[in-house]
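A quick word before the example. In earlier lectures we treated sequence and structure as two separate objects. From today on, think of them as two lines of the same record. Here is Nuclear transport factor 2 family protein written that way.
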Amino acid sequence: MGTAADPAFDRETLRRGVEGQSPDLLLSLYADDAEFRIVDRTTQPSHPKVLHGRDEISRMLEDVYSRDMSHKLERCVIQGDEAAYSESCEYADGVRVLSESMISLKDGKIAEQTLVQAWDEE
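And the structure line, produced from the sequence above:
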């Protein structure tokens, strides 16, 4: 749990950002030098997509949350300087996406995140 010297990660800000599709609110949760790794069908574990810093993460969040789809924070678990959450999404045409994230925190901000995602395929 956070103290004045070690603030807690804000789960409610995460929920409002994800479900309100607010990339700026989500970006506020990241450290300036955060690293974000994405693993999926096209960026597999041996060659994940890696974003460095808030500028690259911001561009990705803007892209994702500008799409015609809904987002729901399913679960979020926080323990010390680690967190994990599940997010389910659905495009307007019914295609669903599920992502799972593991996070390392520093001073209440996301320092590292690894996201694994899968989506419906025809």
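Notice the following. The chain is about 20% helix and 45% strand. We will return to this example when we discuss secondary structure assignment.
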